[in-house]
Amino acid sequence: MRYFVKSFEKENVTLTGYIHDVSNELKNAQIRPAVLIFPGGGYFMCSDREAEPVALAYMAEGYQAFVLRYSVGEKVPFSQSYEDACTALAYLKENSDELHVDAKKIAIAGFSAGGHLAAALGTMGKDKPTAMILGYPVILSSMGDGIYKEIPGLDEKVTAETPPAFIFSTSNDIIVPVENSLKFAEALNKNGVEFELHIFRNGVHGLSLAKPLTSNGERSMVNPVVAEWFTDSVRWLKEIWGDFYADHTSELEMTVNGAGIDTPVKLLLQSEGCEAILTEHIPNIREMLKENPMAGEFSLRIMNHYSPEIITGDMLEEMERKLAALQ
């Protein structure tokens, strides 16, 4: 794992990144989706309970994870926090290659005031995330009265270009009433934006993962039912983005199902007929594998995906036809 902290030339504003190492044993996860987390704290602080614990939970599910500690404080206007959010998202996209991030699969996860900031980026941002995960989010402009700040009402900012949202809250949250989540879901629905909404029957505000590790020792902050939101959010992300591919064909599967463009190249080369087809189209295939033995684990389809200059689409179709004719 690679860990870094980047400052954005503002006091106490940092982006912390948790990046998976690239490994030859994880060939299907060289480039990963990412989750950028905005902790809550009423725009007066950034809660540690909604920062690293959440980031590392998503990292354990295979995502690159980032935590933005944005501008907060009594005299800090919303516009300054929003600028930090825009800067952080832009940084991830501009440096996606170095960070091994799929720039088309970046979700923003925000809680309470951080949920407001995440929803603002998804509705108001010129450059938007591709998904939003909102935990008991502040949405309504009237909520600004309680924190003595002027904030936009984000239910009024939803358009058809707003990215899909996963929202969860509790019906008896007295700090950020459930009306906030309901109004936002209603606005998404009116604009034809996909969303998933979970309103749990019981639970206090600020539950984070709702587990003992994020409870600060307070019993009210532990709620096994609400804790299911995290698993549901991962399932939801996989539904909209897809999972890491798993199309590797084992030697046993090749014996049973025959050879094809989804069979590892090293196995194809063990068959005289398959080898003849490969060397016809890729004469230096064995030299290539000597230089990079791990490439033998890839299928022709995967090689075409990552190295279309070596195996073109037309070439792949022709080899597929010839391999099928051998069966």
Give a written overview of the molecule.
The chain is 37% helix and 16% strand. It is of the alpha/beta class and 327 residues long. It folds into two domains: 240 residues, 3-Layer(aba) Sandwich (Rossmann fold), CATH 3.40.50; 76 residues, no CATH class. A hairpin with a 6-residue loop joins strand 1 and strand 2. Helix 10 runs antiparallel to helix 13. It starts with a strand and ends with a helix. The model has no long low-confidence stretch (mean pLDDT 93).
Q: Which helices and strands, and how do they pair?
A:
Blueprint: E1 2-7, E2 14-19, E3 32-38, H1 52-60, E4 64-69, H2 78-94, H3 96-99, E5 101-111, H4 113-124, E6 131-135, H5 144-147, E7 165-170, H6 179-190, E8 195-200, H7 228-241, H8 251-257, H9 265-268, H10 272-281, H11 285-291, H12 300-306, H13 313-326
Parallel strand pairs: 3-4, 3-5, 5-6, 6-7, 7-8
Antiparallel strand pairs: 1-2, 2-4
Helix pairs in contact: 2-4, 10-13
Q: Show unreliable segments.
A: none
Helix content: 25-40%
What structural class is derived from the secondary structure elements?
Answer: alpha/beta
Q: What's the SSE pattern?
A: EEEHEHHEHEHEHEHHHHHHH
> How many separate domains make up the residues?
2
Shape designation: elongated
